């Protein structure tokens, strides 16, 4: 994102001289030139804002609200997480990847919520997608993600949930139904709001 956005921000504050159509701008009066520059800055800022709102590796997912597809995943720390075995407890599934820049941004929020609610009230699970176990573990250690997590080795879980990118977080109620999913980085207010709906 930095490589994409920085040139826009720099151009937005630069002089119009040297840009395409600069001579035409210079032929305008000073007032007209100021208007042209102001419009350029506004449109550039708007474009940057749209890009920032789309932070994350993707913003789409193909699953609609309904029964959450069951799956089993081996946990990095040992053991097996079977979704259907957690009926009666809300589940938060956070899909991430070591190559996803935005994935680490939400870690403090997820970790704080996992500690506050506890595994008895809400089961948190991280699933690494399109990754390797080694890289996923190193990434988790680097960003401080300690919730139970495993690797979608075959891509079956990703396909079952219609996932197109990371980070994406699913909120599953105690009946095993998808209550909400959020493509992109989750915030503390959003996480709290969705969890309170499930409890």
CATH class of the largest domain: Alpha Beta
Strand order of the largest sheet: 5-4-3-6-7
Gross morphology is: globular
Task: Please give the largest β-sheet.
Answer: 5 strands, mixed
Number of domains as seen in the coordinates: 2
By secondary-structure content and strand pairing, the structural class works out as alpha/beta
CATH topology of the largest domain: Glutaredoxin
Could you please describe the fold and organization of this structure?
The structure is a single chain. With 199 residues, the protein is of the alpha/beta class. The chain has two domains: 2-53; 72-198, Glutaredoxin (3-Layer(aba) Sandwich), CATH 3.40.30.10. Helix content is 42%, strand content 16%. The chain contains seven helices and seven strands. β1 (72-74) and β2 form a beta hairpin. α1 packs antiparallel against α3. It is globular.
Keywords:
199 residues, alpha/beta, Glutaredoxin, five-stranded mixed sheet, two-stranded antiparallel sheet
Write the layout of secondary structure elements.
Layout: H1 2-13, H2 22-27, H3 30-53, E1 72-74, E2 80-82, E3 91-96, H4 107-121, E4 123-128, H5 133-143, E5 149-151, H6 156-160, E6 168-172, E7 178-183, H7 188-198
Helix pairs in contact: 1-3
Compact description:
Helices cover 42% and strands 16% of the residues.
């Amino acid at each position: 994102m930095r490589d994409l956005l920085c040139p826009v921000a720099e151009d937005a504050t630069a002089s119009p001289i040297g840009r395409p159509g600069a001579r035409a701008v210079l032929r305008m009066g000073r007032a007209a030139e100021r208007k042209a520059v102001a419009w350029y800055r506004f449109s550039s800022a708007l474009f940057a804002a749209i890009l920032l709102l789309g932070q994350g590796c993707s913003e789409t997912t193909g699953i609609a609200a309904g029964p959450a597809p069951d799956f089993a995943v081996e946990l990095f720390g040992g053991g097996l997480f079977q979704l259907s075995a957690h009926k009666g407890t809300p589940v938060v599934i956070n899909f991430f990847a070591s190559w996803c820049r935005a994935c680490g941004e939400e870690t403090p929020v997820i970790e704080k919520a996992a500690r506050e609610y506890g595994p008895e009230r809400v089961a948190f699970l991280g699933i690494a997608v399109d990754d390797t176990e080694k890289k996923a573990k190193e990434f988790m250690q680097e960003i401080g993600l300690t919730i139970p997590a495993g690797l979608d080795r075959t891509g079956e879980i990703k396909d079952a949930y219609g996932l197109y990118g990371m980070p994406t977080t699913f909120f599953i109620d105690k009946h095993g139904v998808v209550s909400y999913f959020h493509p992109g980085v989750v915030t503390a207010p959003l996480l709290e709001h969705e969890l309170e709906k499930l409890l």
